[in-house]
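U., I forgot to send this yesterday:
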Amino acid sequence: MRYKRVLLKLSGEALMGSQNYGIDPKRLKEYANEIKDVVSQGLQLAIVIGGGNIFRGVSGAATGMDRVQADHMGMLATVINSLALQSALENEGIYTRCMSAIEMNKIAEPFIRRRAIRHLEKGRVVIFAGGTGNPYFTTDTAATLRAIEIDAEAILKGTRVDGIYSADPEKDANAVKFDALSFKEVYEKGLNVMDMTAFTLSRENNLPIIVFDMNKPGNLRKVIFGENIGTIVKN
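Result:
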């Protein structure tokens, strides 16, 4: 394997599958099988999931809701998704721990850095829920922060497209895919990889970001074993 420890970032929307809202059990099972495959190889894996399939704080604020209140609701949505993924993983026989930035002792452990690293060393998949625990920060930022804290070697951003393009490939047939980019090139080209806070954190801490299609079976394994799929962003 190219990597020993990574953080996988999944969007909440990805869990919808073919639905318009909520969680698709079929998609959850597919992801659980992909994760089981790489964890069985000895990979230490942490995961952060967004909450956009249930509630997005920014969208709530746009309708007049208090932004802090809306962001807290979005954080709770990530907890729901994290628990759903935890259940799917455990159904496949994978040992997991869910750690929340917002204390919820009945359903998740509080995030403690050293404990999270110890779980990873013991072969458990650690799911980080609740974002950073603070409003105004996205789950992209939470993923980057947690990846740095646990000394991950890379952030794997699983999306529904197979990398970073010069434009939205679903809207522009002439969009060009990049195999590799530097952080500077992403800035200069104005490409949308992560929100600026998360992206700057990654750059300053020399943490590579790999964007790939998580919905294609076997892709997660290919990334872990160093195959040239998706797009890698690094210094």
